[in-house]
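Recall the central idea of this unit: under ordinary conditions, the amino acid sequence of a chain determines the structure it adopts. In this exercise we apply that idea directly, starting from the sequence alone.
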Amino acid sequence: RERNIQAQWFDVRKGMRTSDRFGRAEPDVEALAELTNQQLAPRLDEGIVITQGFIGSEAKGRTTTLGRGGSDYTAALLGEALHATRVDIWTDVPGIYTTDPRVVSAAKRIDVIAFEEAAEMATFGAKVLHPATLLPAVRSGIPVFGGSRK
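Accordingly, the structure predicted from this sequence is:
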C-alpha cells in the first residue's frame, strides 16, 4: 500500500484440490492446473496476488493440509500450474548448508545445488526443501531459488 502497488487476495483452496488424507493430502495436479488458470492467472494480470500455502480442499470443500513442507510444495505446484520461469522460496536460514549451521559452527554454505542433490539431502533429513517440493519443479524444468532475509 505504501508503494501504491495493487494487491489482491486469492484463497488457494479455490484451486488446490486434494485427496481427503488430512495432514498429508495429495494434490490433484490436473485440477490444480485447470482451476489455477481459470481463477488465479487472470488476477496476476491485474497486479500482485497474495495467497497461502500448506492447505487445499477436498471434493466436499473441507480444508486439508499438505503436511511438512506444504507451503514450499504449494509454491512449486503453483509455479508448475502457471508455467512460471522460476519459483522463489524464502526462509529464515541464509542458504543451504552442509549441515545445520545452528548446531555445527563449521557448516559450509552451498551456493549452487542440483535438484537431485537437494532431493537427496532432503530425503536424508536435511532441512533444505521437502522432497515433494522438488517434484513439480523437476517435472516442469522450473529452477527453484532459495533465498533468505538474513
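The beta strands are 7-9, 48-50, 55-57, 63-65, 87-91, 96-97, 109-110, 144-148.
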